[in-house]
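Much of what follows relies on a compact textual record of a protein's fold. Think of the row as the fold of the chain written in a discrete alphabet. An example makes this concrete, so a full record is given next.


***
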Amino acid sequence: MKPARFYKEISKNKAVQCRLCSHYCLLKDGEIGLCRVRQNKDGKLYTLVYGYPVALNIDPVEKKPLFHFLPGSTAFSLGTYGCNFRCKNCQNYDISQATEVEEKTKHLKFFPPEEIVNAAQTQGTESIAYTYVEPTIFGEYALDIMKLAHERGLKNIWISNGFMSPEFLKELLPLVDAFNIDIKSFSNKFYQEVAGGRLQPVLENLKRIKKEGKHLEVTTLIIPTLSDDLKMLKSIAEFIFQELGPKTPWHISRFSGAISWQLKHLPSTKVETLQETKSLAEKVGLKFVYLGNVPGEGENTYCPKCGSLAIKRTGYSIQRFDDNGRCPGCGEDLNIVTA
């Protein structure tokens, strides 16, 4: 257990307000936040997961998914217990929705930031990805790793629901090289009932990330009956086009009930629904729309100007034909970060 940052003390009854994410949990002495990894002890806030990753893997960067950031590279990926959302569709619910976290961490090995960065370098990865659960909930740990990673020449990748507080995002922005942020729906009701959050903070954070010039990709999981309305999906496409830019990659992914937390009764998304969404997004003006969890041409990168194939993806294997991020045919800038 380590003293937390991003909170303020409330003089009354040793209460504190956590200011790490947009829930702004108000916690009395002894209470734990919605994320289940931050606790008020005697009027001070502590993080229960600093130095205790529960998942450590080397992943292709395409798995994050990031298709326009260091294509073909690998990312040293980590996540802890806990999450500030309660997404009913979650695939990693065994760690994201874990309870009694303080007790569980006693059985984990302690990894200080230096060991994470050393491991990433030893394995030859080009980046470190903060992922698997919402990384904001282990924010202090992530910041310390990211600072050291930059000193050692590694990139930082943030895979997130976008619900961080403005205070935390301010410190995050100088240290993150690429973001993938979920827009789970354009309905606040969906966010409240299915995810356990709110839409507006996510949209505001996306606009701020874009304003700061950071590499940004967006993901939307299309869930039958819950987030498959084409009118709603068109609203997401219009937001991306107007606020984030037409060359912002949008990953629209296929849902599978079999691996979800609480939606096992729902069928998998029809491929036709994803194809229709891709078509309407391209009509809105988006240049790079990808079909997730649907192997095939929907994962390839084509030049939006001349149609030339720039990157061919087969699973997590890629073939690059681009010219350092530009179209091999006409030279169009494809919004690909290559270094």
